[in-house]
Amino acid sequence: MKIKIKKLFRKKERGTQNIILLIAFFLASSCDSFVDVELPESQLIKKSVFEDYQTADAALTSIYSKMRDTGLLNGSGVGISFQLGCYADELTWFGSPLNTTENFYTNNLLPSTTSVNDYWKTAYNQIYAANAVLEGSRASTSLSPANKQKLEGEALFIRALLHFYLVNLFGEIPYVTTTDYKTNTVVSKLPSNEVYKLILSDLSQAGLNLNTAEPSGTRVRPGKHTVNALMARVYLYAGRWAEAANSASAVLNESGTFLLENIDNAFLKDSKETIWQLQPSAAGKNTDEAIAFIFASGPPRTVCLSSSLVNSFPLNDLRRTHWIGTVSNATSKWYYAYKYKKNSTTPASVEYSVLLRLAEQYLIRAEARAQQGDFIGAKEDLNKLRERAGLKETTASTKEELLKAVAQERRHELFTEYGHRFFDLKRSGEIDSLLSSEKAGWNPTDILFPLPQTELELNPNLLPQNEGY
C-alpha cells in the first residue's frame, strides 16, 4: 500500500527527520481556525517542530483541518454523509449521470472510481500524519510529559477513527502504525476482527492519555469523553454489548457536561449535546453539510431526501418538522436535510460539523441493553429521544420489538450523518432485503467498496480484490 507516500516522501525517508515530512502534506494550505501557529517554511524539514509544543500542536490540529476539508469526513457532496446517503436509501439523486455520485446512487462502484480511490488515499495520508505526530512526540526531548501525553492521545484517537471507517467500507484493510516507507509499501490486509482489536487498543491508550482532558468550550478537540463515545460505537459494531453499554454510560453519566438539547439547538456550535465537532475553516463560515443538502427551488440540482425516509417518520415527530425542509412547485414536492440551517456565512460561525453527539450514545446503550435482556433500561434510553422528539413512550417490550424500535430511532435520529444508515443496515443483516427492493442496482457484494485498482497494482499484498469487483 504505497498510498501515494512514494511521491510525497521518497526523497527524505532517512533518519528521524522523517517524522516531520507530514507537514509538507497537511500544511499545504494557509493557517486556519484549527491551527493557532503557522509553521515557517524553514521548519518543514526540521525535527525542531517537535521541540516546541505550539508547533507540534499545529502539526496535530492540521490533521483535523484536512479531515474537515478532504476525504471521508468532509461535509460536502464528496464526503460519506452525502455519498453513503445516496449509496443506501436516504437520498435520491437528481444530478448529472457523469458525476461520481451517480456511481454511488446506482451502486455501480468500480476499482477505478475516483471517489473510492480518494477515500482510501486521503484516509491513509491522514493516518500517516497521525503516525508522524506520534513518532515526533515520542522522539522529542523538549516536550513536557503532559504535552506528549495529549499529542499522542489525540493522534491515537485519529488513527483509530479513520481505520474504523475504512474497515467498515472496505472490509479487510491494513492497520498502519508507522511512517516507515519500506514497511508501508508492502503492508498486508488484516481480517476485520483483528482491525477492531487494534482500533480498541489505540482507543484504550488514547483514553489513558486523555483521561484528564475535559471538553473545550467549542469541543473541537478530542478528550476522554470523545474516546469513550467512539469506543461505545466500536464495541456495538463488534457485538460486545456489555462494553458498549459501559462506554456509553461513561459519557451519559456526565450530566454536568452533556445533555440533550432542544431539537432546534442540537446542531448549534455551543450545543451541550455535542461530544466532538469540526470547526469551520474561517470565522463566519458554517458547515459544508448545510451547503450540500439545502436547496431553495425544485427540482433539486443534486439530491433530496428519499420518500421512503420521509414517509417513515410519524407526522408529529419534531425531527420530521424541524430537521427536514420542504420545497415545492405546482406539481411536486421535495425534502432536504435541515439539521444544519446556515448555508451561507454569518457574522460569527453558528454551526460546526458534529461527528459525535449524545443522542447516539443513548441509542448505543439502548441497543446494547436490549441485547443483554435489560428491557427496562433499553426503553428508558429510547424514551429519552422520543420525548425530545415530541413522541409518546415506546410500546416495544420484547427483545425483538426493542431492537426494531432502536433501528427505527437510529434511522430518524442519525439520518445523513456519516453513513450511519448504511452501516446499521449492514450490522443488522437486513441490507440485502431492504436495498434490493429500493435500489435496482443493488447486489449483495455491494456491502463492501472495491479496493482501489491503483493500490492493488502498487502493492500486491493487498490482493485479493473484494468479491464482486
Structure, described:
This protein folds into two domains: 1-74 and 110-212 and 431-463, Serine Threonine Protein Phosphatase 5, Tetratricopeptide repeat, CATH 1.25.40; 214-428, Serine Threonine Protein Phosphatase 5, Tetratricopeptide repeat, CATH 1.25.40.390. The chain is 48% helix and 6% strand. It has helices at residues 5-9, 22-26, 53-69, 80-87, 100-105, 114-139, 145-170, 181-185, 192-209, 224-237, 241-252, 288-293, 307-311, 318-322, 358-371, 375-388, 399-413, 420-428, 431-438, 453-458; strands at residues 91-93, 274-278, 303-305, 324-328, 333-337, 353-357. The strands form three sheets. It has a two-stranded antiparallel ribbon with strand order 1-3. Strand 4 (324-328) and strand 5 (333-337) form a beta hairpin. The longest helix has 26 residues, at 114-139. Residues 1-45 have low confidence and may be disordered.
Helix proportion of residues, in percent? 40-55%
Please count the beta strands (DSSP E, at least 2 residues each). 6
Q: Which structural class do the helices and strands define?
A: mainly alpha
CATH hierarchy: architecture of the largest domain: Alpha Horseshoe
Shape: globular
Rg from Cα:
22 Å
**CATH class type of the largest domain:** Mainly Alpha
